[in-house]
Amino acid sequence: MKKATLKDIAQRVGVSITTVSNVLNHKNETSYSEKRKQEILRIAQDLKYEPNLAAKTLVTQQSNMIAVLLPPYMLGFIQESPFYFYLISGIENKAHAMGLDVIIKFIQYTDTVEELLAWAKSRNLHGIVIVGEINERYIAGFNKLDVAIALVDNYTDFELKNIHYINTMDEYGGLLAGRHLIEQGYQRLCILTTNISEQKVDFHRYQGFKKAIQQSGFEESLVVVNTTTYQEGYDISYEVKNMGVDGAFCTSDSLALGLIDGLTGLDVKIPDTFGVVGFDNISRSKENWMPLTTINQNVIKKGELAVETLFQKKSWGSQAKVSVNLIKRRST
Q1: How does pLDDT run across 245-270, given as a tens digit for each residue?
Q2: Residue 123, pLDDT score
Q3: How many CA atoms lie within 13 A of 267 on its CB side?
Q4: Which of 43, 47, 235, 318 is surrounded by the most beta carbons within 10 Å?
Q5: What CA–CA distance (Å, rounded) separates 24 from 2?
Q6: Which ranges constitute the DSSP H helices of the chain?
């Protein structure tokens, strides 16, 4: 069977080949109505149109590929928490809908800026999504490629024109967690978080939690952990029990679930004498033997937003925020 061409699609729709090409390649999209774009996409699908990616790359010097870069410290988190599975699923879903392919790469501690630039250049990337904290030298290097970059869960202000920021309403989530614990009658509260700096997600969650506690006239205790994993929460439970607190906000669900199991093993009665709130609403938080009260964020939507912003060049430097809400379960 003869392979469908741009000309075949154009003839079926009754538009020019240029129009079909622009719609399929997401160029000058504001020039066409949504109805027209959907019609072109439908006909292309009906005809089983497959672009010649090799030829297109030679002509445009750009592939239909976006890269998702993950810092080296994130490898252990991905193995434990479905959060990153949801995030990458959102990225993949949106990329597929836009006719893009996704390549995932872990940055190694030994990678130099020059090595990463060479890797990116050889693939003629359409855009780059970077998750979590990353050395500023890498960002400055990627910026030289003149490729749109979406930073997910990163508050560092790089002041570069082609960078977008996709974060969660982290401070508001911390505020909701603190208020909820107080409303449930807990008064001596602590937060379990990694080392906090203004560039980190946990800093903003801490700021919101701190605001809620101060507004109520209480004081909060800070418990610094190395990672936000289940094991870290379990291991820190003895220290938390001996602090004299009766409630904890953990900046991840995995950390909270570990804390619950650790405290329960130490005969702490949850939620009767101790309340726990997490953050993320991963699947285990609902399925756990002690269902976890948590701050819910739409992680899949966050991934989708990351891909969408790569094509919003007029909004370079934009700040997209994913909303949050509190889900009450048995842990409070």
Answers
A1: 999 999 999 999 999 999 999 999 99
A2: 81
A3: 0
A4: 43
A5: 20
A6: 6-13, 17-24, 34-46, 53-60, 75-80, 83-97, 113-121, 136-143, 170-183, 201-215, 230-235, 237-241, 253-265, 283-287, 299-309
Nearest CA-CA partner of 285 in 260, 263, 253, 250: 253
Closest CA to 72 of 135, 121, 114: 135
pTM of structure: 0.79
pLDDT at 321 exceeding the cut of 70: yes
Of 89, 115, 84, residue with least CA distance to 102 = 89
Please report, rounded to a whole number, the percentage of residues in the chain having pLDDT higher than 90.
Answer: 46
Q: CA-to-CA distance for 279 and 294, rounded, in angstroms?
A: 5
Q: What is the mean pLDDT of residues 172-180?
A: 97
Q: Give residues with Cβ within 8 angstroms of 11, minimum separation 6.
A: none
DSSP state letter for 188: S
Report, as an integer, the average pLDDT of 187-209. 87
Instruction: Spell out the domains of the chain, with CATH numbers in brackets.
Output: 6-50 (1.10.260), 65-167+300-321 (3.40.50.2300), 170-298 (3.40.50.2300)
Contact indicator for 173, 145 with CB cutoff of 8 Å: no
